[in-house]
Amino acid sequence: MTNFSLKLAETVTGSGIKSVYGEPVVVDGTTIVPVAAVQFGFGAGGAGDENAPGGAGGGGIAVPFGAYVSDELGLRFRPNIITLIVVAIPFVFVTGFAWSRVIRALKK
């Protein structure tokens, strides 16, 4: 189990930057580099006895933020609009709720 955990940790740490910034793709003279937020989580368990049950698990998530685009106009970041909306809706809701509580407290 220890060797498995060490190999897994080496693989994840070695691929960190490659996971966030994807491989550049060139299409008709335009270079595109995808950008994402990536998070991994792993766990393992075991006991001192070889016949005892043990376990291991892992998971991850990647949220695409957009892409860097390089062409004749220069280098710029093009955001993923769907991701921005998915992040903005809860943020606006929580901000509005917090402001309503602050205003209500100031009125008292």
Q: Low-confidence parts, pLDDT < 50 over ≥5 residues?
A: none
Mean pLDDT: 81
| Number of helical elements | 3
Distance between the termini: 60 Å
Main beta-sheet strand count, sense and barrel state? 4 strands, antiparallel
Shape: flat
Q: What is the helix content? A: 40-55%
Instruction: Find the structural class using helix and strand composition.
Output: alpha+beta
Q: What is the number of strand segments?
A: 4
State which percent range the strand residues make up.
35-45%
Rg, please?
Answer: 22 Å
Note the quaternary state here.
Answer: single chain
Order of helices and strands: HHEEEEH
Strand order of the main beta sheet, please? 1-2-3-4
